[in-house]
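agent> Task received from the user: take the single chain below, predict its 3D structure, and emit structure tokens. No templates, no multimer pairing.
agent> Plan: (1) validate residues, (2) run structure prediction, (3) serialize to tokens, (4) report one or two observations.
agent> Step 1 OK, no nonstandard residues flagged.
tool_call: predict_structure(input=
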Amino acid sequence: MYPTHFARNAGEPTAQIMRISDRHWHALADDEVVGRGEASPRPDGRLFLSIDAWHDAVFDQLAQAMLAGLPKPLFTIVDETDHALRAQWDRAGFSTGRREWELLLPSGPHHATPPPEVKIIGVGRAERDPLRELDRAIRAEVEASAGWHTMPAEVLVRLDDATVVDPAKYAVAAQADRYVGLIRLAQIPRQPRIGLIAVRADQQRRGIARALLAHVLDSLHRVGIHSASAEVDDRNLAAMTLFESLGATRVGRNLELVCR
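)
tool_result: status=success, residues=260
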């Protein structure tokens, strides 16, 4: 443990910041924990910070200690309507890197079919190797065009190139001897979440993405699940149009903040 002492501000406790592990900090006042900080690595290697503190000054002290002890850039996520939390991260030197809409989609039934030569293979039934080949091809296409900074943070490329960690979460669109589109569904019990939907560049604008999304939503409807959530970068107009065509509503917006 590595203690750091901070002076008392008016009306605030005197805090002692303890780094209790490589990625965890505690703020102590009169031997009581009055704040905690954590740095959580994402699969792509980026570090996302979170701080839970009872006082603004303690938040600032934790942020100062964490930023001093970690390599930049550093990231965090806040609800756009949480102005107090946003102000705390602003004081620490963070600024907006991207905005994502939180969407809620009704589970169905929907009526969307793929082109005649394309077949939808349901969640958990895709073969691993063709799925990984498709995933790598799509990532290369997106990186060469819009860039992965427009994709949800959770699907950024991994450092170990293991881009498909759990094939059981995917449904795919198959054409002849190859996969041409995919959708990933996280089966969270109360609110399943669509984490990624993408189609090969040469197969776009043919209704494949819409058919994949409708298939997954219909499968949820059949088992009594009424909705799914998704996140979309607010600059991705094509994705917003797709989701809203199947009844998605905007329920919130998150900011990804970065300190460089």
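agent> Step 4: summary for the user.
The longest strand covers residues 95-106.
agent> Done.
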